[in-house]
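[Solved] Which block belongs to which protein?

Original post:
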Amino acid sequence: MGKVLLIIILILVLAIILTISVIGFMAYRKAKEVTNTVKSYSNALFGTENPLEGMKRVEMEGSQVPKSVSGATHLYLPQIMRDFPEFHLDEMKSRVENVLVSYLRSIDEANATLLTEGMDELKAELSMRINMNRDRGVKENYQRINVHQTEIYQYRKTAGRCSVVFQTSVEYLHFVEKAGKIVEGRDDLKTQSKYNIELVYIQDRETVENIGESGLGLNCPNCGAPLESLGAKVCRYCDTPVVEFNIKTWGFSSVKEV
C-alpha cells in the first residue's frame, strides 16, 4: 500500500512538473513571438530592432530638421512696396534676424541691453522675462543659435498703424538651470523653433528731437516765416496750410515664439 501511494505521488509530481514545463514553454514561445513582433515593427518604423534606440534616433533626427515657415512674401511684398517704396526686403530680413538673435542672447546673459533695437514695449517684455527668471532663481540658456529662414508672414494695416510680421525658423540649445542643475530642456539636443517678429511703422522720436535740438529751420512755403513746431499745420503769419513734418521709421514691437 505504501509503494502504491509513493508511485501515485511520484506520478502527480511528474505531472505537475510536466504541466509547468509545458506552460513555461508556451509562455516562452509567446514571449518570443511578442519580442519578434516588437522587433519587426521597430525595424519597420525605425530601421532598428531596438525600439528604444529607434526612438532616440527619431528624436535626434527630428532635432536636425528646421521648422518650416509660413511664408507669404510673394503675396504681401507687392502691397508693401506700393505703400512704402523705400522698403528693402533683404535689409529688413537682416534686421529681423539680428533682433531675434540678440533677443535670445539677452535672455541667455540676463542683460536686456544686448537687444540691438526695439520699441519700448519689446524692451519692457524682455526685461520682464529676465526679471522673472531672476525671481525664480534660474538661468535660461540659449546657445549655438542658428537662423535658417526668414519670410514675411503678415502685413497689417489699421487706422494709424502699419505693421509687417516676419516669421523666422531658428535652432538652438535651450535649457534651464537651477543651482547648477538642468531642470528644463537638454544641453545635448538641439531645439528647432520659429518666431513671429513684428515690425511697426512708427514716429521716429529720436530724429524729431535731434532736428529740434539742431535748430534746423522749417519755413512756410508761402511767406517764408519760420514754423514754430514740427507738427504745425497752418502758418501763424499768413494762414497758409502746410504739410505736417512727419518723420517715421520701422521699429520692432514684439518677438513671439509660435
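(Second protein starts here: sequence line, then its C-alpha cells.)
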Amino acid sequence: MWHLRKLMIKLRFILYLILSVFIFSSQTKNEETLIVYYSAISCPCAQWKIENRNNKKNIYLERANDKLLDADQIWDGRTLPLKLKVKGHFKKKLGIPKGFSTKGNPEPAKVFLYTQIEIVK
C-alpha cells in the first residue's frame, strides 16, 4: 500500500511538471513588439506594414479582446502616417482577422494578434 501511495505522489508531480511546461510554453507564443504603419490601400486587404522589415507584404492586425482599441478603426480617413506600437504574436496560419469585412473577398495574409496597442503617431 505504501508503494502505491509513493507511486501516486510521483505521478502527480510528473503531471504537474508536464502541465506547467505546457501552460508556460502556450502563453509565450513568441511574443514580440512591432511598429506598424497604416497603408490606406483602397482594397479589402491587409493594411499594415511592419517598420524596418524588408517584407513587402502587408499584415492584418487583430485585437486579442474587445477591451483593446481596434487598430482598423483608428484612421480618420485623412491623416497619415498612422503609426502604432503593438505587442503580441503572429498566428500560425495565414488568414483574415475576426470581425474583418469579407466584402470584396479579402486575401488571407499574416495575422498579428495583439495584446497591447499604443498610438505612436
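Accepted answer:
You had them paired correctly. Confirming on the second one: The CA atoms of residues 3 and 34 lie 54 Å apart.
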